Amino acid sequence: VKRWIVIAGMGALLVAASDGREQIERGTALYGEQCASCHGARMEGQDVAPALRSPAFASEWHGRPVADLTWRINSTMPQNAPGTLDAAQTNAIAAAILHANDQHGDGAELPESPAAQKTLLIGQ
Amino acid sequence: VRTITRRLFIGGLAWLGLTARLAGQATGAGKASSSPADTDWRHYGGDLASTRYAPLDQINGSNFNDLDIAWRFKFDNFGPQAEYKYEATPLVTGGILYTTGGTRRTVVAINAISGELLWLYRIDEGVRAQKSPRRLSGHGVSYWSDGDIARILFVTVGYQLVSLDARTGLPDPDFGHAGIVDLKLNDDQQIGPDNDDIGLHSTPCVCRNVVIVGAAHSTGFQPPHHANVKGYVRGFDVRSGKRLWIFHTIPRPGELGYDSWPKGTETIGNGGVWAQISADAELGLAYLPVELPTGDINGEFRPGDGLFGETIVAVDVLTGERRWHYQTIHHGLWDYDVPAAPILVDLPMHGGVIKALAQPTKQAFLYVLDRTNGRPIWPIVERPVPQGDVPRETYSRTQPIPTRPPPFDLQGIGIKDLIDFTPELRAEATALVRNYRVGPLYTPPSVATADGTWGTLLAPGAIGGANWPGGAYDPDTHRLYVFSQTNPTVFSLFANENKAVSDFGYLPVETTPKSVLVPRGHLNPGDLTVEGLPLVRPPWGRITAIDLTNGSLAWQVAHGETPDEVRHHPRLKGLTIPRTGRTGMLGVLVTKSLVICGEAGVFTAPDGRGAMMRAYDKDSGAEKGAVYMPAPQSGSPMTYMAKGRQYIVVAISGGTYPAELLAYRLPAV
C-alpha cells in the first residue's frame, strides 16, 4: 500500500511540475491523430464536422464552462470510438482547442477535476 | 407469395410484441388524423424537384411571432451516445411524420399532431457501422407508395438500403434479403464489409419505382491513399431491391469521360454523390451532383479535367444511362464538390416554359441549366484563372464562370473585404492577410513555408458558400432562396515526409516532426480572427433571393443574430453594428408568403441562451417575425397541414444540446 502511495505522490508531483505548454503540445498531437481528419488540419471544419476555431467555436462555446467542452469531447468523440479518450487525453485536446482560440494560455494545465472545470467559463 | 408474406408479417408482429402494439397505434393515428385539408411533405426536399416549397399560409407574417411549440421529440437515447449534429428533414404523409434520429440512425414514425412515437426501427451493425465514414443519423428517410402498399426507405450507417412497411416499421420481406440490400455488394468493385471507406447520409431518391442511391466517403483532405473506394450510383427496384443499373461516376476505359483522365482511372477513388439527388419523373431523368475524385485540395493523382468530378450528371431514371453532363469545375482543388440537390425549376421565357435546373454551390455561383439537355440558360464562359506552383500538381487554365446570376456570396479576398469596424481593426486584418496568398476565386492552394506565406486564403472556404442544405424555390414567383456563409479558409499544403500517413506528396497537414509554421509576433498560422473578430466584413451569414426570370439578385439579408462576443467586444464599444449574420450551414423553407430559416448559432436571447427561427417576407426580405429555439437549426425546416392546422418542424442541436425535433403551430383559437 505504501508503495502505491509513493507512486501516486510522484504522479502528483509530475502533474504539478508539468506546465501548460506540454499539455497543449500533447493535445495538439492528439488532435492531429484523433480529430483532424474530420475537423480539419487547422480546426477549420469540413462538410461533416464543425469548425473548432472562432468565429464558429466562440459562437457555440462562449460563456460555457470548460467542463461542458471536455464532457462533450469525451462522450461523443472520436465519432468512430466515443469514450475511448481518457480524462488526460480529453483535457489535453480541450487545452489545444482553447489555445487555438486564444482562450487558454500555456502557464498552467487545465484543472483535472470536472468541478474545477465547471467554474472556468470559456471566453471570460 | 402474398399469403406467405402476410403470415410472416403476423408472425413478426407476435414475436415483436412491443412493435405490434406500436404498429396498432400507428394505423389508428394515421386514420384519425387524415382529413381533406391535410398536406404532405413526401420528400427530403419537399418534392422530387427539391424546391422546399409549400403553398401554405396559415402561418404568415402577421402571426409568426405567436407560434407555440406543439411538441418536441428528443433522440438522446436512440443510440449509445446522444447526437449533437442532427441534420434530418422529416417527411410527413397521412398525418404521420417519418425521420431518422440518434447515433444509431434509428427510423421513427411519429404522430404529426401530437409527437407521439408510433414505431421505431433500429439495426445494430457493429463494427460495420463503427468504421463508417458517415455516422450519425443522416438526413432522413424516403417514402414510396403505389396506393396499396407504402414503404419507408433509408440507408444505414453501415451502408445498407432498408425498406420498411410504412404502417408498421417492419422490414419488407420481399425487398432484398429480409428487407435489406447490402450496398457494399454488387457495386462493380470489391468493397470490404467493415473497413472500406463508403457510406451515405443523404436520403435515397425514389422516382418511378426506382430507388437511386449515391455514396459518401471520408473527407478527402488528407486521404491515406489515393486508391480509395469509388462512389458509384445505383438504381434498385423499389419492390424487390434488385439492382437495375449502375452509373460509374468515375468512367471506366471505353466509357464517355475516360479521355478526360490522361493517367487513367483504374486506381483513383471517391467521386461519390453524397448530396441529395433530384429527379423529374415526367422527363424520366435523375440529376446527380457528383463530388471530387480523391484528393480534395491536391490533384496529383488525377491530372486532367477528371469527369465526372464536380459535375451535374443527368441519367435516365430507369436505365442509369447518361443523357447529359455539365462540369462546374475542371480539376478542382478547393473541395467545392457539388454539395446540394439541384433544384428543378420551370421558367417562363421566350413566350414558353423552359425546364431548367438551378444548382447552388459552395463557390457561391448558381448554375442554371436547361435540364433537358444541360445547356446553360445564360452564358457560362471559360475564363482564365490563376495558376499555381505546387510540385506535381496540374492546373486547369480556365474555369466556367456563369455570367448570370451574380455570385450570392463573397468570392476571392481583397483588402476591401476585410473587417472595417474601425481603421485599427482593418489595419490588423491587413497585416494578418499579408501572411497568405490571396486572389480571386479559384486561386489555387499553395505550399506553406517558414519564410514565405502560410498558404492560400480564399473565400468561399472549403465549406462554402452554400453547402449540403442547398436552397429553396418558389414556383409562383420563380425566385430561388439560398443561405450562404462568408467564411474563408486556408488552402495550404506541406511536403509529406511520412508515406505511412499518406501516399500523397503534399498534404494539408504537416508530417514532419517540427512545424515550419511558427507564430509571427502575435499572429498564429491558421488563426483567421482579429482580436477575436472574424477577418472579413459581415455579413458572415446571409440569405439571398435570386430572380430566375432574369438571373438577378432580388434581395439579400444578413441572417443570424450578431454573436454575443461581437456585441460585447471591447473594441466595438459605442459603435452601432448592424446585424452581422453568422456562419453555418442552413436550409430554408419557402411558403405562400414567407422564407423561413433558423439560425446557425446561439446568443443571449430574451428567452435565454438560444437561437431564433426567423421569417422574412419573401417578396422584400423584410423580417416578419422570429421565434425562440433552445439550440441552433441543424436540419432544415419543413411544413404541413394536419387537422386544419399548419405545422413547422425543424431539427435542432449543437454544443451541449442534443438532437431534437421542434414542431411549431399557432395557438388554438
What labels would you give this structure?
heterodimer, A: 124 residues, mainly alpha, 7 helices, 0% strand, B: 669 residues, mainly beta, four-stranded antiparallel β-sheet, 5 helices, globular, disordered N terminus
Q: In one word, what is the shape of chain B?
A: globular
- Oligomeric state of shown chains: heterodimer
User: Roughly what is the average pLDDT of chain B, rounded to an integer?
Assistant: 93
Cα radius of gyration of chain B in angstroms: 24 Å
- Could you give the count of β-strands of chain B? 40
Shape of chain A: globular
The proportion of residues in beta strands of chain A is: under 5%
Spans of at least 5 consecutive residues with low confidence of chain B? 1-35
Q: What is the helical fraction of chain A, as a range of percent?
A: 55-70%
Summarize model confidence as the mean pLDDT of chain A. 83
Description:
The complex is a heterodimer of chains A (124) and B (669). Helices cover 57% and strands 0% of the residues of chain A. Chain A has 7 helices and no strands. By secondary structure, chain B is mostly beta strands. Helices cover 7% and strands 31% of the residues of chain B. Chain B has 5 helices and 40 strands. In chain B, helix 1 packs across helix 2. Chain B is globular and about 70 Å long. Chain B starts with a helix and ends with a strand. At the A-B interface, helix 3, helix 4 and helix 5 of A face strand 30 of B.
Question: In a nutshell, what does this entry contain?
Answer:
The complex is a heterodimer of chains A (124) and B (669). By secondary structure, chain A is mainly alpha-helical.
Task: Describe the SSE topology.
The complex is a heterodimer of chains A (124) and B (669).
Chain A: H1 2-17, H2 20-34, H3 36-39, H4 56-61, H5 66-76, H6 87-100, H7 114-118
Helix pairs in contact in A: 2-6, 5-6
Chain B: H1 2-15, H2 17-33, E1 68-74, E2 91-93, E3 96-101, E4 106-111, E5 117-121, H3 127-130, E6 142-145, E7 150-155, E8 160-165, E9 180-182, E10 205-207, E11 210-213, E12 233-237, E13 243-247, E14 278-280, E15 285-289, E16 311-316, E17 322-327, E18 343-349, E19 352-360, E20 366-370, E21 380-384, E22 398-402, H4 423-433, E23 446-447, E24 456-458, E25 471-474, E26 479-485, E27 489-495, E28 506-507, E29 529-530, E30 533-534, E31 541-547, E32 552-558, H5 564-567, E33 589-590, E34 594-598, E35 603-605, E36 608-617, E37 623-629, E38 638-642, E39 645-654, E40 657-665
Parallel strand pairs in B: 23-27
Antiparallel strand pairs in B: 1-40, 2-3, 3-4, 4-5, 6-7, 7-8, 8-9, 10-11, 11-12, 12-13, 14-15, 15-16, 16-17, 18-19, 19-20, 21-22, 24-27, 25-26, 26-31, 27-28, 29-30, 31-32, 33-34, 34-36, 35-36, 36-37, 38-39, 39-40
Helix pairs in contact in B: 1-2
